[in-house]
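> call design_seq(struct)
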């Protein structure tokens, strides 16, 4: 069984990815193509279904011209998830 705290972090990551995508006015398929990921992967990430791999984080950050940390859950997200 998955740790519910991890689910909260997956959701936080998904919210960040979706916000970056929406700010560009892109569909999930646009981001998938630009980052060389599948549309299904983008959908799963945005819905909190999975974490991105490190290479995927780096590709998405590069696509949006942001630091990788912008894609990842921040310390507040970690604390809110219940990690100390």
């Amino acid at each position: 069984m998955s740790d519910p705290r991890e689910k909260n972090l997956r959701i936080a990551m998904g919210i960040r990815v979706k916000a970056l995508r929406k700010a560009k006015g892109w569909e999930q398929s646009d981001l998938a193509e630009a980052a060389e990921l599948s549309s299904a992967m983008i959908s799963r990430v945005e819905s909190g279904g999975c974490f991105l791999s490190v290479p995927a984080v780096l590709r998405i950050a590069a696509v949006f011209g942001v630091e990788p940390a912008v894609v990842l859950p921040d310390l507040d997200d970690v604390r809110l998830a219940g990690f100390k």
